[in-house]
Specification:
The chain has 132 residues and is an all-alpha fold. Helices cover 59% and strands 0% of the residues. Helix 1 (4-13) crosses helix 2 and helix 2 (24-48) packs antiparallel against helix 3.
């Protein structure tokens, strides 16, 4: 199992890595880290928006953070799809309203045991070996 800190570090380290696989734990810990950062950034932005100069500067910082998180978010989504032995191109389903919720189902699925088309098991062993 991967920890919150390890998943957060891997999220930024593998920002432009669209190859390989990411486990469910890695994906959801990284997602939690992003949500926490978004809440912090929006809270600070709301507080600082009352000060005209700081509000404008912080608005630019918020935009920069959002832009910096786009590609790493897409890459971890692609790697998560690879873990379920699906093409990373399925990430484009997220652009279709309502239908894009199918991605949530895919991201919650258990990864394939052992190696698959996209690489080795992120846990290093087949899940069946862990439970025996």
């Amino acid at each position: 199992m991967i920890s919150f800190v390890d998943a957060s570090v891997l999220f930024w380290k593998r920002a432009f890595d669209f190859q390989g696989r990411s486990s469910r734990a890695e994906y959801w810990w990284a997602y939690l880290m992003l949500v926490a950062l978004y809440v912090i950034v929006l809270t600070l932005g709301t507080i600082l928006s009352s000060i005209p100069i700081l509000g404008a500067i912080f608005g630019i910082a918020i935009l920069a953070f959002y832009l910096a998180a786009i590609i790493p978010s897409i890459s971890i989504g692609v790697r998560r799809l690879h873990d379920t032995d699906k093409s990373g191109w399925l990430i484009l389903i997220g652009l279709i309203p309502i239908i894009g919720l199918i991605l949530l189902y895919f991201f919650c699925q258990r990864g394939t045991d052992g190696a698959n088309t996209y690489g080795n098991d992120p846990y290093g062993v087949a899940s069946s070996d862990v439970f025996t």
